[in-house]
Amino acid sequence: MPYIATQAFTDPDSYYESIGGVGPVEGIITARGNYHATLTCVNFSRLWMRRGEDSLARVAIYTPRMARTTIMFATDQDQPARQIAGVERQPDEVTVVSLGSSDHVRTSAAARWGAVTLPPEDLAALGQAISGRELTPPSFTHHVKPSKSAMLRLRSLHEAVGHLAKKAPDILARSEVARAIEEALQEAIVFCLASAEPVHVSSAHRHHARIMRRLEEALHANSNGPVYMSELCAAVGTSYSTLRDCCQEHLGMSPKRYLWLRRMHLARRDLCRADPEKTSVTEIATSYGFWELGRFAVAYRTLFGESPSMALRRPPDDPKPGENAESPWQFIKSA
């Protein structure tokens, strides 16, 4: 019996935490506006599926840590290209994520995406059985362009599963239905990868991707406080000018802007989760290096549409002022 869940969000942190699957996903919103997102999760016996949509431009950081191969794609053609690891990717391309990578996925507008994950040994065996090719997981995240028919088949199946998860989860939960759909998705993935043309990524881009991976490792090692640029460059092992070029390529912004946005989002996360009886805006702001509290309050309101004190006082499960609460989790868990 599969695990099936659908949810709507107005809080980006909750959205990214709920994606899960094979490792943490973090997101930094880079545009102003009311945020809303939807997520569908279906875990079959071996294949796990995610289907999501979010409303604002963002940079998402995906760091797979479980021994599963992740395949990501746009769920339709009618959306802007994405930047993945600093390279523009078209909606008709599929990304195969390597284990141990830390890839930045940047969008300029609302995005609709899908993903499936499989144990690497399953993917290799399925590839050999279905296409006569052993599909081994990549040592470096790479991108392929499947045939139109294979891509259409994958998208159609993925959409159908998403629809069943929302409208008829009891049917999807039936063992015979789940098994048939899982096998169909596995076959669709194999045909996509077996029919695909590899998309070339230069050695320079791969070198920059390694620098960005070290950047994320350094930031995670110092996630509970401010990180200064000189310390960061030393930890990453590169000059500021090289780090600036890499951040511009992968994130569309300077490293200083990225660090500032990251600290603002971490402060927001703590404000939204803190007990106002036990902590204060000042305590949280200064813990992330915001010493000028007036400027912090103005920047916070500009970025998030409310004051830091409002975020601290609001119960964690409440939407922002002016927003309606979204639908709760609907789920069927395996026994």
Automatic annotation (TrEMBL):
Residues 314-323 have a biased composition (Basic and acidic residues). GO terms for molecular function: DNA-binding transcription factor activity; sequence-specific DNA binding. Residues 209-314 form the HTH araC/xylS-type domain. Residues 310-335 are annotated as: Disordered. InterPro entries: AraC_XylS_family_regulators, Homeodomain-like_sf, HTH_AraC, HTH_AraC-typ_CS. Keywords: DNA-binding, Transcription, Transcription regulation. It comes from the Bacteria. It holds the Pfam family HTH_18. This is Helix-turn-helix domain-containing protein.
